[in-house]
Specification:
Strand content: 5-15%
Largest sheet: 8 strands, parallel, barrel
Shape: globular
Structural class: alpha/beta
Number of helices: 23
Length: 598
């Protein structure tokens, strides 16, 4: 069967029973988001609380393994349970889609039970194949194989930025990316074969490799066509509603407001429906592709086409869509009245804006302070003579050309060095000099305390004695990736505002920090809500694109740390300085599209 005929058949199959397919996906997502995901989060919290673990991060892996081995085992078991649930999710989806496509009389409960049996049918060896399949392949094909249980399987942006900024790493990264995407296509039929044809893991891998031989470009083209269809459908609706809102904004405010509430709700529902439709059509494409290989049974039941799937279920689909529409209208009304989001603090990362100077230097600080950021984020290290120097990297090579670390040189030696970046040059400053310059220009600081194993045992005590009162008077704040610094400051200098830096959102931590500085990639609405419930703030880092800035604003974070301060300030202004309803609708559409593309 040609690609054109296969795609036409898949689209036709979807539109013949769209109500049943959408109901299947909606119910599946409800089960995951309302029951399973909260249950997994609660179990994770129970494990951490019971074992007296305040947080999970790569920084405490050694401590966990050596001091909390029981907790590590419990977390590994929980991770395996989550993987099993992911397998169940896709079994539920594929079995349901197969049943609807072949006109089989299956209730949702029957599909759920059969999905569990499909999981039980797999041997341990098959499950071992399944783990790397999801860990490696699926994160690179998340446009269709989406799961709330896999939301945190992401590569942090700061790692990607580091790799792309190094030519050798960038080339290697590109090769790895292309290789994994090639493997994703060659193994695209593994899950359907394991679930629908009950093949063992290794057998399914071999079969998928065989079936996709000489068809790699065909599968890639099918994926692109389905994806582009979804994007075009979403953009067309967004543009149409935007033009409509432009006209409504010319009338009375009540008309414009009501129209905006309805249009935003329609857009939200439409985006969800398009995403669900793309997922179903993608699965149907795989299903019909296997039928073409005469792999799985295609017998239809004798039940007429007007069975429950195509009659009653459509009403259920309408009811679920209307319910979602009503909830969206309520939340949109609150959002448009300005009661849902608060304006985040604009924070300059390392004291620069769009490469306007050398990071962490006084000339850049002075230049950036003229743009009036809420805070300038900067970094300090302890020196050989137990002073503090302003520097981000542990090694000085990148900025100064000196292959030494801060702890190997005295403050006097360090401040003689010249740092070069972005076509600028400036002396490496001491923290005292940098702090004085900030005070002279009335600029508040967010000080990151960097630590190494070479720091003196009383480093934190000396920092508190020397700078606590000064930082309090200046209303400056502190954050650190080292939890011992955070806990030490809260114990010995409780009046200081301290944020704990988290590079990855494994689970919500239980600490006494005033705030969390969270890397943006895995930051989600649940984390922000939990923090606000605990009266803790959330600062997102490092957020450099407009799409990501919009995303963080919609998460209602308290502050955004960026290398592009001017862009962030403009984005915040667009969202909060009396925007028209049409512009708010456009921003909302951009955010929905960004979420869809991820």
């Amino acid at each position: 069967m040609t690609t054109k005929r296969l795609l036409r058949k898949s689209f036709r199959s979807f539109f013949n029973n769209w109500g049943a397919y959408l109901t299947l996906i909606i119910v599946m997502n409800l089960i995951l988001t309302v029951i399973i995901v909260p249950l997994m989060q609660w179990l994770t919290k129970v494990i951490l609380t019971f074992n007296h673990i305040p947080y999970l991060s790569y920084t405490n892996v050694v401590w966990l393994v050596t001091q909390r081995p029981t907790a590590v085992i419990e977390l590994i078991v929980l991770a395996l349970v989550i993987l099993a649930l992911v397998f169940w999710q896709f079994s539920f989806m594929l079995l349901g889609i197969e049943g609807i496509c072949h006109n089989q009389d299956r209730r949702l409960t029957q599909i759920a039970v059969k999905a569990l049996k499909s999981l039980g049918h797999q041997r341990l060896s098959s499950f071992l194949i399944f783990i790397p399949y999801f860990a490696i392949i699926l994160p690179f094909s998340k446009m269709y194989f989406i799961s709330p249980l896999l939301d945190k399987v992401k590569i942090p942006i700061f790692i990607l930025n580091y790799l792309t900024n190094n030519l050798v790493y960038a080339i290697l990264g590109l090769i790895v990316f292309l290789t994994i995407n090639y493997l994703a296509i060659r193994f695209i039929q593994v899950l359907p074969l394991m679930i629908l044809d009950r093949q063992r893991g290794i057998q399914a891998v071999k079969s998928s490799w065989q079936f996709t031989r000489h068809h790699t470009w065909a599968y890639l083209w099918r994926i692109v066509v389905i994806g582009l269809t979804g994007v075009v459908a979403t953009l067309a609706m967004s543009f149409g509603l935007y033009l409509l809102q432009l006209q409504l904004d010319k009338g009375q405010n009540i008309v414009a407001f009501t129209g905006a509430v309805i249009n935003m709700a329609i857009l939200a529902v439409w985006t969800q429906l398009v995403a669900a439709a793309a997922l179903v059509i993608f699965a149907l494409m795989l299903l019909h592709g296997l039928e073409q290989q005469v792999i799985i049974g295609t017998q239809k039941s004798d039940v007429p086409a007007t069975l429950k799937w195509s009659k009653r279920v459509r009403w259920l689909a309408f009811a679920l869509i209307l319910l979602f529409l009503a909830s969206q209208m309520a939340s949109n009304a609150i959002y448009l009245r300005g009661a849902m989001l608060s304006k985040p603090l604009a924070i300059s990362h390392r004291g620069v804006d769009d490469e306007n100077g050398v990071q962490n230097t006084i000339p850049a600080l002075i230049k950036t302070s003229r743009e009036k950021p809420a805070y300038v984020e900067m970094d300090i290290h302890e020196t050989k003579d137990h002073q503090f120097v302003v520097m981000h990297d542990e090694n000085l090579q990148n900025l100064t050309g000196v292959n030494k670390a801060s702890y190997q040189l005295t403050l006097k030696q360090l401040t003689r060095l010249t740092a070069r970046e972005n076509g600028y040059h400036a002396h490496v400053p001491s923290f005292d000099a940098y702090l004085k310059a900030a005070e002279q220009h009335h600029q508040r600081l967010l000080v990151e305390i960097k630590t190494t194993p070479h720091d003196s045992s009383d480093m934190l005590a000396r920092f508190i004695a020397r700078y606590e009162n000064r930082l309090l008077a200046d209303h400056d704040r502190i954050h650190s990736l080292d939890y011992h610094v955070v806990s030490g400051l809260k114990k010995h200098a409780p009046k200081l505002y301290v944020s704990y830096i988290l590079p990855y959102n494994f689970t919500f931590p239980q600490t006494d920090a005033n705030a969390y500085t969270m890397e943006e990639t895995t930051l989600d609405n649940t984390f922000v809500e939990q923090a606000h419930t605990a009266n803790q703030a959330v600062f997102a880092w490092t957020v450099n694109t407009e799409a990501d800035m919009q995303s963080m604003i919609f998460l209602n974070v308290d502050g955004i740390i960026t290398d592009n301060l001017g862009d962030l300030q403009e984005t915040i202004k667009e969202n909060f300085d009396h925007p028209t309803y049409a512009s708010r609708l456009l921003i909302y559409a951009m955010q929905l599209e960004n979420n869809y593309s991820e």
